[in-house]
Design goal:
globular
Length: 300
């Protein structure tokens, strides 16, 4: 990570290219999830993804930073377990469960509400300053989501669809809990180390979802399934976190956070291209309203 950090410190364009690449991966992660849950259950998806992620972080961190990992677990063990549970296991479970019925493009827009959930929880638990402009942003963002859900898909909204939309919304709420709960931990320890160890805890937790019936099903899974699992595990998780924290060492956080707005754009665009999901005028209008609201929430 140090060599990449040195290059980012010197290169003016490299960090922009890498962040666009990360958001491109994240935007396409919804398509990968949609493909995986067509073959296995959401809980089995979590097992595949985070066992791979945990093993990868173990290979990266344990040989060279074992003492730091050991001391971090001794000091923050239960907190790291909680972060792995909320930010990995529950987040991915609700997202995958919701995507069994919710289109990938719409799911990417629901996840774009992350900052709104984080601000709401920060008001309650972190004593965040109350600002009317940011509260108005919350209202605007959820108005945009209503437009997307009610008219965006071009199909009639049913109670079953609404249920899965709500399940999908639990994913950004879990990420908000992960972010708020982890704020004090990353203030005391290197963020990449905290993320890596919490993902190793997530890998341990997800082992309970591996059952004999799943192992017997493995030979029947297509090559594209394994490609989607590897895509979620390596580019979307390990590589993305690696780049994200390396860039944050040398660039202002507010400038880096702005790249998040590319994720739903990539998500909707590639969902239409690869999955044939329709892009309607109400969907674009709702997306624009939602992003404006999220921008207002993020403004300081």
């Amino acid at each position: 990570m140090s060599s990449l950090s040195e290059r980012l410190a010197k290169g003016k364009a490299l960090w922009i290219v890498l962040l666009v690449l990360v958001t491109l991966f994240w935007g396409n992660s919804f398509i990968a999830i949609k493909h995986i849950v067509a073959h296995v259950s959401p809980l089995e998806l979590v097992a595949f993804r985070f066992v791979l992620v945990a093993l990868t972080f173990a290979v990266i961190l344990l040989p060279t930073r074992w003492d730091e990992v050991r001391d971090l677990i001794r000091e923050e063990g239960w907190r790291l377990g909680f972060l792995g549970l909320t930010g990995a296991i529950l987040y991915s479970t609700f997202l995958a469960w919701g995507q069994t019925e919710v289109p990938a493009g719409i799911a990417s827009l629901i996840i774009a509400l992350n900052p709104a959930f984080i601000y709401a929880l920060s008001l309650i638990f972190l004593g965040e300053t109350f600002q009317w402009a940011r509260v108005v942003g919350l209202v605007i963002a959820f108005t945009g989501l209503f437009v997307i859900i009610r008219w965006g898909s071009g199909e009639q909204l049913t109670s079953a669809t609404a249920r899965y939309v709500f399940i999908t919304m639990l994913a950004p709420s879990m990420w908000a809990i992960y972010t708020v709960a982890g704020k004090s931990v990353v203030a005391r320890h290197p963020p990449f180390l905290v993320t890596g160890v919490s993902m190793m805890f997530a890998g341990l937790f997800s082992l309970v979802f591996i059952r004999p019936s799943l192992l017997a099903h493995l030979p029947t899974l297509p090559f594209s399934f394994w490609g989607a699992v590897l895509f979620l595990g390596w580019p979307c998780t390990v590589f993305a976190f690696f780049v994200w924290f390396a860039v944050l060492e040398h660039r202002d956080a507010s400038r880096v956070a702005g790249f998040i707005y590319l994720v739903p754009m990539f998500g909707v665009s590639f969902s239409q291209w690869l999955l044939g999901e329709p892009i309607t005028v109400p969907l674009l209008l709702g997306a624009a309203i939602l992003i404006v609201g999220v921008v207002l929430v993020n403004r300081r």
